[in-house]
Amino acid sequence: MSARPTALVTGGAGFIGSHMVELLLARGYRVRVIDNLIGGREANLAAHAGNTDLAFERGDIRDAQPGGALFRDVVSVFHFAGIGDIVPSIESPLDYMSVNVQGTAQVLECARQAQVRKFVYAASSSCYGLAATPTREDHPISPQYPYALSKYQGEQAVLHWHTVYKLPVNVIRIFNAYGTRSRTSGAYGAVFGVFLRQKLAGKPFTVVGDGTQTRDFVYASDVAEAFLRAGETGLTGEIWNLGAGNPQSVNHLVALLGGPVIHIPKRPGEPDSTFANIAKIRRELGWEPKVSFEEGVRRILAEIDYWRDAPLWNPDSIAAATSAWFNALATKGAPA
Is the residue at 281 inside a domain? Predict the structure, then answer.
């Protein structure tokens, strides 16, 4: 009987990374996690405490060393580590380039020297900018802010290591992931974290614009399943879009959460709709979204206390937090 494979999950104590760890353990992998715990929580791995198949290292991916113990005998790398959010990327672009680009290159070089059999990169659909929908993988690239640029440059590094060094890689461009264990701290960002804290506090939901904008929400466990398939397929050098292929309006989300609403100004550089064409990932990996939006929201509400320590946002604090966003992007010609 062959030894069980070892997978490395960077950012494995974070939102999607922790779901990836859960799936890998369930499928019989030994799992190593590296996370600096800035965006993630070690508590996200608490359900696996005492499991000898899971090893956790607190650290920065930029400090990972080729030939180090972290990568020893690793078969697959699932690279989720990085920093997100739009506003901080506008305010501190060099941090994003350092972590999301140079950090990715550091992990790639470690993976190359460890001769891993598959490297799967968590890319972002933000690379498409204000895209035509449904969006295919060959859509023109047009990053609107430094976060999007940094994730796309990280993707380019991944594909470059594949071309030059023959490292077996695949890329998944995630659209709007949501689910339990999403980030609760840091800058103003994803709609779920904002709304859930507002619901806990009995405050109105701060809906951007008229709420008719739609997002292609895909549940975290479905994301993890797609990454596992990308890690186990014989295909390499591929790029896949990952969404549910069924965009939902912010107004529908508010109706499912239940509560009063207050409207705030629409922001420049944000698309009215995100909508992944997922024909390629369905065809090549046999992946299908399993968790409906309504079921996903029910799962989140069942664990809503997780977001109790998240920042509580209101129109004034949001306006202050997003002023750099408006100042930097309003000149692009998008509605402000």
Answer: no
User: Domain for residue 316, yes or no?
Assistant: no
Report residue 13's pLDDT band, with 50, 70 and 90 as the boundaries: very high
Q: In this structure, are residues 224 and 16 in contact, taking their beta carbons and an 8 Å threshold?
A: yes
Return all residues near 210 (Cβ < 8 A) that are at least 6 apart.
Answer: 251, 263
Across 249-258, average pLDDT: 97
Q: Can you give the pLDDT at residue 268?
A: 83
pLDDT tens digits, 76-117 = 999 999 999 888 999 999 999 999 999 999 999 999 999 999
- Structural Rg of the chain based on CA atoms: 19
Geometric angle at alpha carbon 184, from 183 and 185, rounded to 5°: 100
- Give the predicted TM-score (pTM) of the model: 0.95
Considering the domain boundaries, does residue 197 fall inside one? Answer: no
Contacts of 136 (CB under 8 A, 6+ apart): 241, 277, 279, 280
- Residue 15 belongs to domain with CATH number: 3.40.50.720
> What residues are annotated to the active site?
147
Tens of pLDDT, residues 205-219: 999 999 999 999 999
Domain region containing 228: 6-177+217-242
> Given the structure tokens 């791995």, which residue do they identify?
45
As a dihedral over the C-alpha atoms of residue 151, residue 296, residue 253, residue 189, rounded to 10 degrees, the angle is -30
Count of structural domains within the chain: 1
Q: Under a CB-based contact definition with an 8 Å cutoff, are residues 91 and 77 in contact?
A: no
